[in-house]
Predict the structure.
Amino acid sequence: MSTDMTEDRAARFIVRRDEGDWSPTDQAELDAWLAESLSHKVAYWRLEEGWRLTDRLRALYVPDEDAPPARRIWRSFAPFAVAASLVLVLVGFAMWPRPDPVRIVQFETRIGERRTVHLPDGSTIDLNTNTKLRVALGEERRSAWVSGGEAYFQIAHDKSRPFVVHAGGHDVSVLGTKFSVRRDGELVRVAVLQGAVQFQDTGHSSALGSTVLRGGSTAVANSKATIVLREPLSRLEQGLRWRNGAIVLDGKTLGQAVAELNRYNQIPMVVADDQLAAMPIGGGFQLDNREAFIRLLIEVYDVRVSRTADGKIILKR
Amino acid sequence: MFSDDELNGWFRREVLSLEPSLTAFLRGHCSQKDEIADLRQEVYEKALRGAGRGLPDRTAPYVFAIARNLLITRARRARIVRIDSVADIERLPMHPDWLTPERYLSAKQELARARECLEGLPTRCREVMRLRRVQGMKIREIADHLGIGIDAVEQQITRGIRLLANHMLETAAPSDAEGASASVGKPREGS
């Protein structure tokens, strides 16, 4: 019997019992029903207790039925739906040195670290784990160089000074927009959330190696080729959840998920089993909670975990 | 082995007082919201079955451990792992808020809450329940008073008992309900 039906039956017993003409036969029927299954007891005891809690309603009894219901009293209790606690999120605020147009400033994050940098032109850059970049704000152009890692740029609009991000052999030029740049060696990935950027392979003459990327586009490029994908914005935003310390693993295999998580940890995990690596997973995950991820694999999927001499975490069936 | 009365008392006093936090916990870890009532029922059954062999020293950790194991078993059966559905169960730490019995209310607070629940019922059901619970009328009297059938009254009362009981048990009582304005925005300790 479903919980719903069991509960209904239990409630009917309570209705009858409350009527006042409850006989020993009725009690015997109830006892038999309760003895039938633990689920009957749970449902009956639970409803009885909840029902008992409304006993005090009798206190509202007024002989004259037309007396106005005292609405005001209970209304005044509504404000109790109150936020339980206030959480203050402090964003690392990088102090910018004296405005000095030609000065190049370097920002860096360690493995597992994140940081938000506010530039004096009103732009902000979020640095993901293990990222290194330099920024120079000149009179005629604004420049950034990504030497590795991943960063999300929200560039303040300034027609007179384009912002150019240099990532390996590729340049991303913008006037004002939101996009992310990720660089793993020669591989560069640019995702545009808003506005448009010009994506250029600096190894080619400008006409050949240049592409305009608009919101919803992602370009993946190495030194030989560039692929442009269109993706729904929601998906692009999922890819930026690291800015809140989270990661979305939807549509990934365990192998891919492990590779992603490894970016955030000094000690890498290794999936030593192809079948295990191909296991589909999904969901969202807090980046600082890798321990739980591993425990989950052990407990739910009977994955065995061992350590190598140099500390790597090996995952096997 | 315990008598049913002892089990019953323990269940009402210690297990049902966890219902708001248990429900919130199950909601947070199960994406199928219509399964919450079934899951909760299963947790209670397992809790009672285990307690029949001996009451646990501390009820809250016992009940939440059952809930956690149940969610893990469930996740094991799913084809695609939703990491978020189970991973954080590990963190299930016994949050102080979850362990405080939430239902120690003064008579006045209890009445205010019951009344709020009553007012929240669907119109017809509320009317019948008011006559039943507040005015103390019998089913027959309600039927006459409203000019509807006895079956209809019975059905509304059955429904009303379930809705009221669910509401009273599932929602946490305000922790400090005497002065309405005093608790607004008051941060909780230790979070």
User: Anything to note?
Assistant: The CA atoms of residues 28 and 91 of chain B lie 13 Å apart.
